[in-house]
Design brief:
CATH topology of the largest domain: TIM Barrel
Number of strands: 12
CATH architecture of the largest domain: Alpha-Beta Barrel
Order of helices and strands: EHHEEEEHEHHEHEHEEHEHEH
Number of helices: 10
Structural class: alpha/beta
């Protein structure tokens, strides 16, 4: 392996950890007669009612916390036409750049009507990561793993564990420092070094074109530099918050099932005691409710 270059100076600072949101109990299966839908930008209550062939009032009654925020999962009341059967065409998407873009990057797949979700994992090195990749593969599930370059210095075989189990690679920087405080040259170094170590670890491997910035922290500079290096900044629809101190498997499960919807990108992290227990339950939930699992690239493809 080539010598690892020294990082240019950066003023990266720690990011404050936000307390977890309050969670509502979730059933093991979606309530009878309800379907989930992820709001597309410019979706209106009237448009949803027309597509689902129900009244605006019944939609509001099924969603007492209605905000109309794009990417938010809502419940369609019993008697609604399922999103997969809506007659109105999908919003036009000719390229990735036409997809919904938020504060962490692209956050919702092109087709938010078919029951598909993308599982994504931000990983370095942790005990249990290999078991996680093998468990998903054994269930016929391909996921996307955003790798930290720093972990590849001592554990280059991580790339083989991902690819040999049929999963997809993405770039999660080298240091996991906050890119909002980096110069353009440092951002380029972070992306390039992780890509270099990936290629050295496994012939033909690449992290392009997927980038998840550490903490999901992006701005115009991060996006512009990433694009110039051949990357798309990818965020998430649902943050499992499996990184919270003291998080439980029940909390992860409840958060994901209450916020998931067709077209969702779901963010997890290195295997830990809580998500190791929660994930099989979540896979069972999605399968029982008719969802298919795809990679991030597939869910973003126009």
């Amino acid at each position: 392996m080539a010598d690892v270059p020294t990082s240019p100076a950066t003023e990266a600072t720690p990011v404050e950890v936000v307390a977890p949101l309050a969670l509502q109990p979730a059933p093991e299966i979606q309530p009878d007669g309800y379907e989930s839908y992820c709001l597309w930008p410019n979706d209106t209550l009237g448009l949803l009612a027309a597509n689902a062939k129900v009244s605006e009032q019944t939609i509001l009654a099924a969603n007492p916390g209605w905000t109309g925020q794009a990417g938010r999962a809502i419940r369609l009341p019993p008697g609604s036409v399922p999103p997969s059967q809506w007659a109105a065409p999908l919003p036009p998407v000719a390229r990735v750049e036409d997809l919904p873009f938020g504060i962490s990057g692209y956050y919702l797949g092109r087709d938010n009507r078919q029951k598909r979700v993308a599982l994504s994992f931000d990983v370095g090195y942790a005990e249990g990561n290999q078991d996680l990749k093998e468990m998903l593969a054994a269930r016929g599930i391909r996921a996307t793993f955003f790798v930290l370059g720093g972990a590849l210095v001592r554990h280059p075989y991580i790339i083989g564990q991902i690819l040999d189990n049929g999963h997809e690679l993405g770039n999660h920087s080298y240091t996991h420092d906050n890119m909002l405080y980096m110069s353009e040259s440092v951002i380029r170094w972070e992306l390039a070094l992780t890509e270099q170590l990936t290629q050295e670890a496994y012939p033909g491997a690449t992290t392009r074109p997927l980038l998840r910035a550490p903490f999901g922290a992006i701005n115009g500079t991060v996006v512009r530099v990433a694009n110039s290096e051949g990357f798309h900044a990818v965020g998430w629809t649902v943050d499992s918050r499996d990184w919270d101190d003291g998080v439980t498997a029940d909390a992860i499960y409840e958060r994901v099932v209450t916020q998931a919807c067709p077209g969702a990108i779901i963010a997890f992290h290195d295997a830990n005691p809580a998500n190791t227990v929660a994930l099989p339950r979540l896979l069972d939930f999605f399968e029982r409710n008719g969802y298919q699992f795809v990679t991030v690239s597939q869910i973003l493809s126009p």
